Amino acid sequence: MTASVKNGPARDEVQAHRGASAVAPENTLAAFRAAAEQGAKWVELDVALLVDGTLVVIHDVTVDRTSSGTGSLGGLNRADLEQLDAGSWFGTGFAGERIPTLEETLKVLGELGLNANVEIKQHEHHRSLEQLTSAVQAALRARAAHTQIMISSFDPQALAAMHRLEPELEMAMLWSQVPADWQAQLEAIPAKTIHLHYKALSMGLLEEASKLGIKVRAWTVNEPAILLSFWPAGLTGVITDNPAAFLG
Ligand code: G3P
Ligand code: MG
Fold first, then answer.
1. In sequence order, which residues have a C-beta less than 8 Å from that of residue 88 and are 6 or more positions away?
2. Strand, coil or helix: what is 204?
3. Residue identifier of the C-alpha nearest atom 4 of ligand 1
4. Would you say residue 4 has pLDDT above 80?
5. From the CA of 87, how far away is ligand 1's center (Å)?
């Protein structure tokens, strides 16, 4: 009998980056709906706090690039965001999209049968890690029971704090490059998943990670050919703007 060689991701290992952000405005409900329409099971989304403590889904520290408004999240409250159009910058068909809260997003994801990789962004205006992580926890606790969650961050302190609050959740350390002491850093969180920029992938890392039972997902890859040699070596999953390309 021949051993099967993995040559692509399983369906539940394709994560729509900021939703299906190739076809809809990133981190909006429209982008999450588009991910579901493409057959994705997971979406990646970014969260941060407004000045009033509302936890919202947005990548940048300002609303300038992805909405009709301007200003830093550290100077805006929820009522300010309700005035902003987060869709027209992407296409006129998306006029009226809003910057959603994590809580409203999780409600919609529950309805769509989607699971969420919640990436915690750390910004200077955040008053404390405790405020940030307890806001994440509160939103997660309001989700539908069938919605699976994983947490990711470039900030190991945020992951460690979330792990203390929600020890059952998968914690994924985000890196652009693999640090020399990567195993020690994961153990300190503790985390058993790496989300790595695809250009930093190597056969050596995948081999070692597989031996240790550590998952490795690659971001942000929109062209499946880029990852072909890495699947048989143990790559776990992909985070992509264009899930359709991987879901065939
Ligand atoms: O989760 C992978 C990716 O989202 C990390 O980078 O800047 O797109 O949040 P960024
Ligand atoms: Mg992200």
1. 68, 94, 95
2. helix
3. 17
4. no
5. 20
